């Protein structure tokens, strides 16, 4: 089955397969072709080039894209879309003056979501989560990472990971599962954090590995949650099961989370709203991808990640949503890209690179998605008629998506 897309006003993010991520100044370069064609075959990108040089193809279907642009679907490398219910009440509490920290200390926050999730059946949790996944695919996400971490008991963590497994089976986009048992200390272990870490290491990890339920491991390395030593213990234990770390660090405090994560060769370190010079030095000596989550800063009113410092240090950067019920109840990557430009002063080129090729790297799916590359999945966004790709972040809040293609089929 072949499909030919012709007269594409601009074909965005064309790359050779050898490019897996872009760093520093390279982030400001977004390779494109104006007036292009794109040929797909059996769900994969087969060929692309300039219209003037298009060979004669016999395709099953031809789609005229005059005035429209094509770019790879967004790669959202950090989400928590498997959750039960919502935390709208906490949103109102924050409007009325309580802080995120105060809400968490009063038994709200992650523990509130854990209580709801524990009381929700696996079937119901699947239905709620699948709805969110479909919502974000329609918004242009074509590869996604999903974390556990709202279970906080062996059974509930397994329930979350089994829901992610089922999503992988039923939806045809790259989905990666991350075990985040170390998301918060459950109330039963309030005065016995060691006991909970032992549960993670001695019971959760072996069971999860035996059922092959996770690709990555995560921990919330933060004051009041898991210390650097706790994180070290968990990442060390996870290594035995070949779980690569992707770690929540530096959301509120810089406590050494980056150093311990890079020491464990983490694939990514995520949040980084607080970032010291020492953190930057540790990142520079690593292959770890820094990931910024601007929708979280927007929703909580906390500082935005200093991405200009990161890029000036010649580092790469990825952008993700952090879609979750507490700090970021939105999985809209278009908003993330716009907010990165508006609030973090990224150029449209940098933001699109961060949300596609670097996002793919941050979840180990670079061979399948993240760019318009021969042999990669035909997962792409066709825009409405727009004057330039800069219009995507510029027209924040507008829906500029005309169609989404996943594995060569309209979603
Ligand atoms: N910071 C840790 N975890 C989530 C939020 C958790 C929640 O509030 O439910 C985050 O990445 O922002
Ligand atoms: Zn998160």
Automatic annotation (TrEMBL):
<comment type="pathway">
    <text>Amino-acid degradation; L-histidine degradation into L-glutamate; N-formimidoyl-L-glutamate from L-histidine: step 3/3.</text>
</comment>
<feature type="binding site">
    <location>
        <position position="78"/>
    </location>
    <ligand>
        <name>Fe(3+)</name>
    </ligand>
</feature>
<feature type="binding site">
    <location>
        <position position="248"/>
    </location>
    <ligand>
        <name>Fe(3+)</name>
    </ligand>
</feature>
<feature type="binding site">
    <location>
        <position position="322"/>
    </location>
    <ligand>
        <name>Fe(3+)</name>
    </ligand>
</feature>
<dbReference type="GO" id="GO:0019556">
    <property type="term" value="P:L-histidine catabolic process to glutamate and formamide"/>
</dbReference>
<dbReference type="Pfam" id="PF01979">
    <property type="entry name" value="Amidohydro_1"/>
</dbReference>
<feature type="binding site">
    <location>
        <position position="80"/>
    </location>
    <ligand>
        <name>Zn(2+)</name>
    </ligand>
</feature>
<feature type="binding site">
    <location>
        <position position="326"/>
    </location>
    <ligand>
        <name>N-formimidoyl-L-glutamate</name>
    </ligand>
</feature>
<feature type="binding site">
    <location>
        <position position="327"/>
    </location>
    <ligand>
        <name>4-imidazolone-5-propanoate</name>
    </ligand>
</feature>
<feature type="binding site">
    <location>
        <position position="150"/>
    </location>
    <ligand>
        <name>N-formimidoyl-L-glutamate</name>
    </ligand>
</feature>
<feature type="domain" description="Amidohydrolase-related">
    <location>
        <begin position="69"/>
        <end position="385"/>
    </location>
</feature>
<feature type="binding site">
    <location>
        <position position="80"/>
    </location>
    <ligand>
        <name>Fe(3+)</name>
    </ligand>
</feature>
<feature type="binding site">
    <location>
        <position position="248"/>
    </location>
    <ligand>
        <name>Zn(2+)</name>
    </ligand>
</feature>
<comment type="similarity">
    <text>Belongs to the metallo-dependent hydrolases superfamily. HutI family.</text>
</comment>
<keyword id="KW-0408">Iron</keyword>
<dbReference type="GO" id="GO:0008270">
    <property type="term" value="F:zinc ion binding"/>
</dbReference>
<comment type="function">
    <text>Catalyzes the hydrolytic cleavage of the carbon-nitrogen bond in imidazolone-5-propanoate to yield N-formimidoyl-L-glutamate. It is the third step in the universal histidine degradation pathway.</text>
</comment>
<dbReference type="InterPro" id="IPR006680">
    <property type="entry name" value="Amidohydro-rel"/>
</dbReference>
<feature type="binding site">
    <location>
        <position position="78"/>
    </location>
    <ligand>
        <name>Zn(2+)</name>
    </ligand>
</feature>
<feature type="binding site">
    <location>
        <position position="251"/>
    </location>
    <ligand>
        <name>4-imidazolone-5-propanoate</name>
    </ligand>
</feature>
<dbReference type="InterPro" id="IPR005920">
    <property type="entry name" value="HutI"/>
</dbReference>
<feature type="binding site">
    <location>
        <position position="87"/>
    </location>
    <ligand>
        <name>4-imidazolone-5-propanoate</name>
    </ligand>
</feature>
<keyword id="KW-0369">Histidine metabolism</keyword>
<protein>
    <recommendedName>
        <fullName>Imidazolonepropionase</fullName>
        <ecNumber>3.5.2.7</ecNumber>
    </recommendedName>
</protein>
<dbReference type="GO" id="GO:0005737">
    <property type="term" value="C:cytoplasm"/>
</dbReference>
<dbReference type="GO" id="GO:0019557">
    <property type="term" value="P:L-histidine catabolic process to glutamate and formate"/>
</dbReference>
<dbReference type="GO" id="GO:0050480">
    <property type="term" value="F:imidazolonepropionase activity"/>
</dbReference>
<keyword id="KW-0963">Cytoplasm</keyword>
<feature type="binding site">
    <location>
        <position position="324"/>
    </location>
    <ligand>
        <name>N-formimidoyl-L-glutamate</name>
    </ligand>
</feature>
<dbReference type="InterPro" id="IPR011059">
    <property type="entry name" value="Metal-dep_hydrolase_composite"/>
</dbReference>
<keyword id="KW-0862">Zinc</keyword>
<feature type="binding site">
    <location>
        <position position="322"/>
    </location>
    <ligand>
        <name>Zn(2+)</name>
    </ligand>
</feature>
<dbReference type="InterPro" id="IPR032466">
    <property type="entry name" value="Metal_Hydrolase"/>
</dbReference>
<keyword id="KW-0378">Hydrolase</keyword>
<feature type="binding site">
    <location>
        <position position="150"/>
    </location>
    <ligand>
        <name>4-imidazolone-5-propanoate</name>
    </ligand>
</feature>
<feature type="binding site">
    <location>
        <position position="183"/>
    </location>
    <ligand>
        <name>4-imidazolone-5-propanoate</name>
    </ligand>
</feature>
<keyword id="KW-0479">Metal-binding</keyword>
<dbReference type="GO" id="GO:0005506">
    <property type="term" value="F:iron ion binding"/>
</dbReference>
